[in-house]
Design brief:
Elements lengths: L1 E7 L4 H11 L6 E8 L5 H8 L4 E3 L8 H14 L4 E4 L8 H6 L4 E5 L15 H9 L3 E8 L9 E8 L6 H26 L1
Parallel strand pairs: 1-2, 1-4, 2-3, 4-5
Antiparallel strand pairs: 5-6, 6-7
Helix pairs in contact: 1-6, 5-6
The structure holds glycinamide ribonucleotide.
Length: 195
């Protein structure tokens, strides 16, 4: 089995997309060994529990700094012997050491076509707000490896989504999730789990 650890900070619709594709057999050789949240009380943890997956809350604010937090996360994922760590709406920065320790084993899903609307501060609704402000007609999502640069690692998959007349950031976000993120995140895991 290809062992996946998932890091979350919110609603967990991307986590759900992975769970659904494991359960329908598309990711038949994969299992989620644990879901770890950087925030308390997030719905992603409920989703994990509902599917019998270990749900762990490790609040970022319980640790002194990024380094201390990353060491705790690294210990957790080493114990779980994960093959891949998926950042699925994880909004906390990880240390250089963490990234080095799991080199080429950490992927992130980002809600824009990198290199547009990405980097520090571009998370959640912000990429969609900025895409609408700029007036782009096409946006989308990217799955990429995580390196030391925010949203700067090697791209694995991208999918384009059209902006529509009258879109609000929330409406655009929902379309990008449904038509791009939830499709390419399981596809990227399938690619990596076979190699
Ligand atoms: C998703 O849109 C994800 O791409 C984004 O946060 C949302 C989490 O939703 N991540 C980032 O912006 C990272 N830069 P979810 O909890 O429902 O999966």
């Amino acid at each position: 089995m290809f062992r996946i650890g998932v890091l979350v900070s919110g609603g967990g619709t991307n986590l759900q997309a992975i769970i659904d594709r494991i359960e329908d057999g598309y990711l038949g050789n994969c299992e989620i060994t644990s879901v770890v949240s950087s925030k308390e009380g997030v719905f992603a943890l409920e989703r994990a529990k509902k599917h019998g997956i270990k749900a762990v809350c490790m609040p970022r604010k319980a640790y002194a700094d990024t380094n201390e937090y990353s060491v705790a996360l690294a210990n957790h994922f080493e114990t779980e012997k994960v093959d891949l760590i998926v950042l699925a709406g994880f909004l906390t920065v990880l240390s250089e050491e963490f990234i080095k320790k799991f080199e080429n084993k950490i992927i992130n899903v980002h809600p824009s076509l990198i290199p547009s609307f990405c980097g520090k501060g571009f998370y959640g609704l912000v990429p969609h707000q900025e895409a609408l402000k700029y007036g782009v007609k096409v946006t989308g999502a990217t799955v990429h490896f995580v390196n030391g640069e925010v949203d700067g690692g090697k791209i694995i998959l991208q999918k384009a989504v059209y902006v529509q007349e009258g879109d609000t950031p929330e409406v655009l976000q929902a379309r990008v999730m449904k038509e791009a993120e939830h499709i390419i995140l399981p596809e990227a895991i399938k690619i990596l789990s076979k190699s």
